[in-house]
Predict the 3D structure of the following.
Amino acid sequence: MLNRKALEDAARCNKIYDCDECAMKKNPHDCLEILAEYALAYWDMLERLEWICVGESGEGEDVIICPDCQNEQKEGHKPDCALAAINKAGDKEL
């Protein structure tokens, strides 16, 4: 698992003088593949966390909310919801 330091080093990779100073300690050609694998894993996790069940309503239905904006799923995300923005951005093509 990559730690925060390794990700921070990778984010400013062009500013590091020597790969030996980088917390990733990898060949530069391997870094992209490793970072892409972690990015996809994080993306999958964010998609799974978009809606969570927090209990049952008085009618016995599951109450499902967004952990960021706290709106119920049936209402959709609030316009300023960061989690919705991240997940929506993943659907766009570069």
The longest strand covers residues 52-56. The mean pLDDT is 82.
